Structure formats: structure tokens, C-alpha cells
Amino acid sequence: MPNENINIKLPISGSDVELKSFITAREKREIRSVLLGAADFDIAGKSVSAIKPETINQAEDKTFELIVVSVNGNKESILETIMNLHSQDYEFLLIEVNKITEGLALKKNP
């Protein structure tokens, strides 16, 4: 199934961001492995160690790398561009990419 891209406009900067409309199982596993790779599991004690904040950041970075196709038509240095966004644009974009990783439907803009 081809992955059709969708476009969103960030609320503060007005930047246009092109996103994949879905991720593959392989991509989902890449994101999950960032989180699970940093956790310590104690099967006998049935516990999981706390996940460090930098691990969450690494998982978010991986998610952006896999889903964001371009920002304002630029396909280079996407993660760096995202890190320089207004914090409200960043949070908006994070919500949108999380919808995609969770498999929630997004409408394509005309």
C-alpha cells in the first residue's frame, strides 16, 4: 500500500509540514525499540525501571525522523528545523505525529 503524504500547517509559525499518513510495522518497532532498549525488566519482581527523559527525547526524535517528510518544502536537516520551532508548534507537531504512530486517521488537506 503506497504511503500518501498529508500536509499540516503549524499554528504559530504557519510553517507547512509534510507527514507520512501512516507508519509501517518496521517503523513502529524502531520507535518502540528506543524505549524498550533503555528499560530494565525484572520479570520475577514484575517491575520495569523508570525511563530516563533523554530516552523519551530519543524516541520523539526517531518518530520525527520516520514521519516528517519536509518542513516548508525542505527535506534536509528536518530534526534540526523541528528543534528550532516555537514550543507550541513543536507540541502541535508532536501531537500530530503521535496520532500517526497510534494509527488514528488524519484527513488529507485539499
Written description of the protein model:
The protein has one domain. Helices cover 45% and strands 16% of the residues. The protein is built from four helices and five strands; from the N terminus they run E-E-H-E-E-H-E-H-H. It has helices at 25-37, 53-67, 78-83, 87-101; strands at residues 5-9, 16-20, 41-42, 47-48, 68-71. The protein has a three-stranded antiparallel beta sheet. Helix 1 packs antiparallel against helix 2 (53-67) and helix 2 (53-67) packs across helix 4. The chain starts with a strand and ends in a 9-residue tail after the last helix.
Helices and strands in order, then pairings?
Elements: E1 5-9, E2 16-20, H1 25-37, E3 41-42, E4 47-48, H2 53-67, E5 68-71, H3 78-83, H4 87-101
Antiparallel strand pairs: 1-2, 2-5, 3-4
Helix pairs in contact: 1-2, 2-4
